[in-house]
Amino acid sequence: MALLEVKDLQVRVEEREILHGLTLTVNEGEIHAIMGPNGSGKSTLSHVIAGKPGYEVTGGQILFKGEDLLEMAAEERAAKGVFLAFQYPVEIPGVATMNFLRTALNAQRKARGEEEFSTPDFLRKVREVSKSLNIPQDMLKRGVNVGFSGGEKKRNEVLQMALFEPSLCILDEMDSGLDIDALRIAADGVNALRSPKRSMVVITHYQRLLNYIVPDVVHVMSKGRVVKSGGKELALELEASGYAQFEDAA
Amino acid sequence: MNVAVAKTGKGRAVSDLFTSAEGRLPGSPGITAVRREAFETYERLGLPHRRIEEWKYTDLRALVGEVLPLAAAPDAAALKRAADAVKAHAIDGAHKLVLVDSVLAADLSDVKALASEAGFKTLRETLEKDADLLKTATVDAVIALNAAMATDGVVLSIADGVQLSAPIQIIHIATAASASAFSRSQVAVGKGARATIVETFVAAGASAYQVNDAVIVSVGDNADVAHIRLMDDAPDAVNVTSHFVTIGANVKYNFFNMTTGAAVSRLQGFITLAGEGSELSANGVNLLQKTEHGDTTLVVDHAVPNCVSREVFRAVIDDRAHSVFQGRIIVRPDAQKTDGKMMTRALLLSDEAEADNKPELEIFADDVSCGHGATAGALDDSLLFYLKARGLPEKQAQALLIQAFVGEAIEQIADDNLREHVIGIAERWLERRS
Ligand SMILES: Nc1ncnc2c1ncn2[C@@H]1O[C@H](COP(=O)(O)OP(=O)(O)OP(=O)(O)O)[C@@H](O)[C@H]1O
Ligand SMILES: [Mg+2]
């Protein structure tokens, strides 16, 4: 069953069209990789799915579990199970990570009509997840992402993903800025979340990540469109030959 | 006398305010003369208005218009409401001194428990002997009016070397609607003493009332004082408060003010560093919504060398509210090696919100390090989006960021318990927004 259906999506930013009719279907339980040159619109797609303001959708639609995602506020999408691990997670000084995690988790649960987590349950859960991701507890006492290294920020995104248990995870260049060990830890964290009910869209420039998180489908994006889709061998092909062959197709 | 002022009182002659109250004001006959003189000063000046430089942004004539008649003594029902308010606003473990419509309510206060640690009298008692407490170095119309009309207050003395075991909390409770209340208090902290004074202003069923408070603080050498003022008066009330603080040598004085209530308010603090080697930390938060007007004015006077002053001020302004921060740092010719800095930031939550910031450095010494900085802006959209993408609704996302913003001032409060108390009040303000 299709979890996410992006149909002929056209998106403008400040009068300039960035996505020119992008189509993408992600079924439940599948892992899709999106590769493509800088500026091809990968982050733009992920932002539009997550509901970031400032993008004007001039055509097409996005369905999530059959519902019109574009009609929903960002927080509603999150509560329904959309999660974007940001390429550049922001720093939020003065908002303690623990407080943020608890507030966010409970806001999502409340929106779904579920009971809020009790403090001990919440703490146990955070401890479990942060341990598996090798995130020290005292990092969680700091402001959200404040003073975190690039790799720590990315791990903090995976931590949230594990905590919120979304049904769609979009990972925007989760591997950028991660050293080899950190990459393995983060990828293990992501793999631990694989389930028949959960789908992932992995945006990356490097085939290496896909050795850890093995995709079912690989898409090539160029100039605001998906120009080719294939199996995991497509990523290897790209690694060998680059994007030049697709520039014309776009 | 100022004819223009007399006419602004809606049909009521200004001097009626005093003559009708005179019989109820405490003090020996000699003191009545001092009061009358103070009232004449007030009559001559009239309510401050925008053409008076210090009141440029807070035009009381336009914002308030007239001074309401003095509140009558509270009845049994009012005292019952006050007792409930005390329960709701008391800080755990603090020694409470409760002023109901500016008159000490002994039954609601912990006078006995306090007696073992601090000297305590009411202003009423003190004024039977001398009028010193009605005099201050700085006088303006509202200060003069306070001297003329002060009905009661607390007069505290903490002896040399005494370390208070608990904070003293002065709770001002308004029970009388459409009336005014005038309080005047004194806190004298002895050498080497350690004290925490908290002042709380709240309403108990009263609306549209006016508060005019004055507090005179003196701090002996080597003392360590935390002074916290939490003004959460009714949303249609007026609160004008003047602080006069004189600080000795090698003192740590940590002041914090938070304004979360009143339609119109002004806290004006006149703080003099009169002994060398002292550290003043004077911080504040204004949380304003609707059409509220909140003014925090601090005059820090470095009269001697080698003192440090730090001011951190945060304003959060919603709807059509108006926040004013005026910070003046005076460095006298002798006050070499002064280190004085203030940093103010305003967060504007609506297009119609207004923030005025007036820093003034008056430096007469040459070997000093003084500065100020100010910013004003809206919430950061990229931070808001991050929080919303994690499931926080707009108002909740804003609330987290607002708490972080004011946290920079609130974290200057050292005591965990008090800090939590203050955060609680800020949270209730945030809940009123949505
Ligand atoms: N807010 C914006 N204002 C103007 N142009 C924008 C904005 N956001 C994105 N763009 C433009 O849209 C195009 C696509 O950007 P996007 O960030 O989606 O690319 P990307 O595929 O994620 O690139 P990278 O691999 O470098 O992360 C770029 O040309 C970029 O300059
Ligand atoms: Mg990108």
From TrEMBL, chain A:
The keyword Nucleotide-binding applies. Pfam families: ABC_tran (PF00005). GO terms for molecular function: ATP binding; ATP hydrolysis activity. SMART domains: AAA (SM00382). The keyword ATP-binding applies. InterPro entries: AAA+_ATPase (IPR003593), ABC_transporter-like_ATP-bd (IPR003439), ABC_transporter-like_CS (IPR017871), FeS-cluster_ATPase_SufC (IPR010230), P-loop_NTPase (IPR027417). Residues 4-248 form the ABC transporter domain. Keywords: ATP-binding, Nucleotide-binding. It comes from the Bacteria. Belongs to the ABC transporter superfamily. Ycf16 family. PANTHER family: ABC TRANSPORTER I FAMILY MEMBER 6, CHLOROPLASTIC. Involved in beta-(1-->2)glucan export. Transmembrane domains (TMD) form a pore in the inner membrane and the ATP-binding domain (NBD) is responsible for energy generation. This is Cysteine desulfurase. It comes from Bradyrhizobium nitroreducens.
UniProtKB/TrEMBL annotation, chain B:
Residues 28-170 form the SUF system FeS cluster assembly SufBD N-terminal domain. GO terms for biological process: iron-sulfur cluster assembly. Residues 173-405 form the SUF system FeS cluster assembly SufBD core domain. Coiled coil: none annotated. NCBIfam families: sufD. Belongs to the iron-sulfur cluster assembly SufBD family. This is Fe-S cluster assembly protein SufD. It comes from Bradyrhizobium nitroreducens.
